[in-house]
Automatic annotation (TrEMBL):
The lineage of its organism: Bacteria, Pseudomonadati, Verrucomicrobiota, Opitutia, Opitutales. Keywords: NAD, Oxidoreductase. It comes from Nibricoccus aquaticus. InterPro entries: D-isomer_DH_NAD-bd (IPR006140), NAD(P)-bd_dom_sf (IPR036291). GO terms for molecular function: NAD binding; oxidoreductase activity. This is Dehydrogenase. Gene3D superfamilies: NAD(P)-binding Rossmann-like Domain.
Amino acid sequence: MAGKSLTIWCNAQFSADAERILKEGTRKHRLVRAAGAASVLTAGGEDSALESADIAFGQPDAGQCVRSENLKWIEVTSAGYTRYDNEPFREELRRRGAVFTNASSVFSEPCAQHALAMMLALGRRLPGALDEQRGERRWLFSELRSESRLMAGETVLMLGFGAIGRRLAELLAPFRMKIFAVRRKAYSEAGVHVISEERVSSVIAEADHVINILPDNESTRNYVNARRLSWCKRGAKFYNIGRGTTVDQGALIEALESGKLGAAYLDVMEPEPLPPSHPLWTTRNCHITPHTAGGRSDQDETLVRHFLKNLAAFETGAGAGEFADRVI
């Protein structure tokens, strides 16, 4: 692709600074803006301009991507790629030698930090102290001190182990925890015991922290169900920074209300936004953030720079290993 002018289609909505960086970085190519815009979490619709594009950047319509024979590379502005995660899509891109990349490395750091923040907050009883400051303002010196826990020596089980899980494992390393992660292919990883699905029932029974990082697909929907929650040790803490559809929320509510789980932290739910009347808002020891784990103040600029780095690799005809966050 060296020296060739490319048509780059984009439907991502960016800040003014990020838009300036994108235009400057693609100045030797033709940058085409879609008629409609999409966000990180919202898919875009079909757009006629996509059909003549060499590259798509943003959240293009998956079906139109399959039909657009000219497309040689697609980069989505998200870590998740559920709508593209199917065999017909993969087969078509492989057939024409096209590349598909996501932005998982853009969001792995904030998601990992967010999970660590809640783990520390729950261990140090910060939500309880904040409730008192905003409520009756009782001086719960003895209660909060005696219930505070150290993470050192505790056991963590991650459900899923991609970019977020790897970064979280790095952040947890100084706490000297025993870290397990389940994924389809078990292999050794520094500081992490990667296990197969067959071992989940025994390992989850020992885990003090169960962290769900699963994406949404046919095999993961309602993965965290009543049966798997029943395997948890009493008082364990559950965290969801994956997708809301991977959890049976009714079963989760029951596990919290019964005291089986000590606490839950949810950054993702089903549906989103979570209606004010939804029982999760008032469930015992359930703590909610509104899908902000991946948030970062420099998100748009970082997404654009991620794309431009991959564009440089694409321009030179680089091999598969040269693309950041290559999926296909």
